[in-house]
């Protein structure tokens, strides 16, 4: 999938070196096709790294994708320059009159706070309400998944005795669901969080379908039965070294953290970690774009009334 991104976005040079198919605005405008319009609410502190991770996974499909980024206006990130935000990001107020085929809401390092104490919670709930009429399907990641489960379905998160960090095996719970089509019966995925949600509550909710779970890390992947919301509690978008960078950061802060489980060869932080989840991550994103977005979105968004759930 050629991804249409701004020519000067810093992630562009890195992704091109990986042979990711990117397309700039002038070329994209000459193609007589209907691209998918994807909005990304990037709540992660290292925004450029998250941009790169998500754009990479959105690239693996034959359709053209236009990507826009938004950030919260009620909280200003301290880890990104104002010039980067002003050049490549918009706010909710700037896009709220538009419609999007798909949206991604990322995780955020606020999971140990009650939802209502997060600085931008009111703004986020406004955005999540807006997606009900203006977005075909929304993919929520990590804390973003917990926020969606709480806001849309009343499922609360709870604090764990210690941080879940590592790469864990998961099993497909519903192999006939199109979102996991082609995925292995058992596959690996990274987790990095201090909180969890109840698998029993997810299974008991008649609006949700649990699609993948781990004995060690709990529920990973679930989808609403109307296919409007997809929730991933882990970080399948992570690069090979992301967990290592987080571990080294926590150690440098003097935090009492364990070596990420199942991540380093022989559990030795001096050895280079291997990415053993990449293919499943690509496939899951491709399935979401195809089955939940492309196959379901209206060809023309003339008005909100032209599409109903």
Automatic annotation (TrEMBL):
Keyword Nucleus: no
Catalytic function, reaction form: L-homoserine + acetyl-CoA = O-acetyl-L-homoserine + CoA
Signal peptide range: none
Site (Important for acyl-CoA specificity): 111
Active site feature: 142, 235, 237
EC number(s) per entry: 2.3.1.31
Pathway(s) annotated for this protein in UniProt: Amino-acid biosynthesis; L-methionine biosynthesis via de novo pathway; O-acetyl-L-homoserine from L-homoserine: step 1/1
Top-level enzyme category: transferase
InterPro entries according to UniProt: Class_I_gatase-like, HST_MetA, MetA_family
PANTHER family in the record: HOMOSERINE O-SUCCINYLTRANSFERASE
Name assigned to this protein: Homoserine O-acetyltransferase
Residues reported to bind substrate: 163, 192, 249
SUPFAM superfamilies found in the cross-reference section: Class I glutamine amidotransferase-like
The protein's role, per its UniProt record: Transfers an acetyl group from acetyl-CoA to L-homoserine, forming acetyl-L-homoserine.
First-listed, main subcellular location of the protein, grouped into a coarse class: cytoplasm
Keyword Cytoplasm annotated: yes
Keywords, comma-separated and alphabetical: Acyltransferase, Amino-acid biosynthesis, Cytoplasm, Methionine biosynthesis, Transferase
Record localization: Cytoplasm
Listed Pfam families: HTS (PF04204)
Family per similarity comment: Belongs to the MetA family.
Site (Important for substrate specificity): 192
GO MF annotation list: homoserine O-succinyltransferase activity
């Amino acid at each position: 999938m050629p991804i249409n991104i701004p020519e000067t976005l810093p992630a562009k040079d890195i992704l091109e070196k990986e042979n990711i198919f990117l397309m700039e605005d002038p070329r994209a405008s000459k193609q007589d096709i209907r691209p998918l319009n994807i909005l990304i609410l990037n709540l992660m502190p290292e925004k450029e790294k998250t941009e790169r991770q998500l754009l990479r996974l959105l690239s693996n499909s034959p359709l053209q994708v236009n990507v826009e980024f938004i950030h919260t206006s009620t909280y200003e990130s301290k880890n990104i320059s104002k010039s980067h935000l002003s050049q490549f990001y918009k706010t909710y107020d700037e896009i709220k009159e538009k419609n999007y085929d798909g949206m991604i809401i990322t995780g955020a390092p606020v999971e140990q706070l009650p939802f209502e104490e997060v600085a931008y919670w009111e703004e986020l709930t406004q955005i999540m309400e807006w997606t009900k009429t203006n977005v075909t399907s929304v993919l929520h990641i990590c804390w973003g998944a917990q926020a969606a489960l709480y806001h849309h379905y009343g499922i609360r998160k709870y604090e764990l005795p210690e941080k879940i960090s590592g790469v864990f095996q998961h099993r497909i719970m519903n192999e006939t669901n199109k979102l996991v089509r082609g995925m292995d019966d058992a596959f690996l995925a990274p987790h990095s969080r201090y909180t969890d949600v109840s698998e029993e509550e997810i299974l008991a909710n008649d609006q949700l379908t649990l699609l993948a779970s781990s004995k060690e890390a709990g529920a990973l992947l679930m989808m609403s039965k109307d296919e409007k919301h997809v929730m991933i509690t882990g970080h399948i978008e992570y690069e090979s070294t992301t967990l290592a960078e987080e571990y080294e950061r926590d150690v440098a802060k003097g935090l009492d953290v364990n070596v990420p489980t199942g991540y380093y060869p022989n559990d030795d932080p001096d050895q280079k970690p291997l990415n053993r989840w990449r293919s499943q991550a690509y496939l899951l994103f491709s399935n979401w774009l195809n089955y939940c977005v492309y196959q379901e979105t209206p060809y023309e968004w003339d008005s909100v009334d032209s599409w109903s759930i």
